[in-house]
Amino acid sequence: MVSWRGIYFILTLFWGSFFGSIFMMGPFLPLMFISPSWYRWINNRIVATWLTLPVALLETMLGVKVVITGDAFVPGERSVIIMNHRTRMDWMFLWNCLMRYSYLRLQKICLKASLKSVPGFGRFT
Fold first, then answer.
1. Quick one: which of 77, 67, 85, 65 has its CA closest to 106?
2. What is the pLDDT of residues 52-83, one digit of tens each?
3. Is pTM beyond 0.85 here?
4. Domain for residue 55, yes or no?
5. Cβ contact 96:49 at 8 Å
6. Whole-angstrom Cα distance, residue 32 to residue 28?
7. I need a surface site. Which of 8, 56, 67, 125 has the fewest CB within 10 A?
8. Residue-wise DSSP of 18-53
């Protein structure tokens, strides 16, 4: 049985990221050469705004309920979250957690060393 909500979820994420990268991030590409710090600042906010889409879709359309347990984030302190990737959806659950604490635009992701030469993830990104 095909889950039409699942297909709609995937298509919405794909088209949202495709058109969002063209129409939201594209106009600011020249700023990358003029003022990289401003480009980075604007780009961080655009990406954080887009990351609310998967969170909203997971909760409203698919009915996912995220329960956060453990130590809370301490405002003003840096935190390290280590994920073991038990599913392919764990990034979206992380975004759910970060959105609850208003840290979605502050996230920094470190990948393992073997991914540094992969286009899109590596050092030339």
1. 77
2. 888 888 888 888 888 888 887 887 788 877 77
3. no
4. yes
5. no
6. 7
7. 67
8. HHHIIIIIGGGHHHHHH-HHHHHHHHHHHHHHHTHH
